[in-house]
Specification:
Length: 294
Amino acid sequence: MSDEVLPEPRWRIHLRRARRHTGFMAGAIIVAIAAFMAIFAELLMPHDPYLQDLSKRLLPPIWDAAGTWTHPLGTDHLGRDYLSRLIIGSRVSLIVGGLATLIAGLIGATLGLLGGYYGGRIDAVIMYVVAARLSLPGILTALALLAVIKGSLVSVVAVLGFLLWDRFALVVRSATQQVRAQDYIAGAVAVGTTETRILWKHVLPNILNPLIVVATLEMAAAILAEASLSFLGLGVPPPTASWGLLVSEGRNFMFFKPYLIALPGALIILLVIAINALGDGLRDLASPVDSGES
């Protein structure tokens, strides 16, 4: 019998690399915890996050001498349990980040795919649109639009989705141009494969890696933008619990109750850093790997 050793499956190689990538694992764990909080918020919250009780306003957190386990992180200026509002706030952040990224990805990836594949006048028109979008300052444009149409969860998602697509378009266009020059694309054209099938079956699967990386980075940008807009009063309106809105509501008490700003601010920073670390890790893991790697 032959003693030849079979090559290790590629999925095992990628799994081992992922486990060894500290940034990827740390980011994935934090994002998974945030997603768990958002999905099962009703089960995790000790109190109704919207229930007001002015007799219990600004109760201290558990690390204060007067704190109690009834409200581990204290209450806000309206007597609402702060831990519950932080937990439900993760849902708003992930919904805005996820849906805005989905909208931006659909717009940008479609434009980038068409421009990179067809080139010529189609590419010129698309690049003109991209240049026009890049000439608009993102946050200032979002502030102007939301001031006109009034802030809500739907409007924030829509505005951010229509303002964050440019990076998708540029990255997908560049990746599509590289794939378009490959011999297997020329072979598919030669045997009469339709352009729609070529784009869907041959081009898109080969640009998924950079597309996923851009999606993680844009999701972090969308979460940070939503927090900024909510802080300025033009994002998700109260009483909806948003981490950015919690920072805004706590700024009047920042010298007396600094945790009202520190806790949601730290969660925003942690989640954004985790998503960026996850994106960087995906970029590293998507790089070519030798199947014989040990």
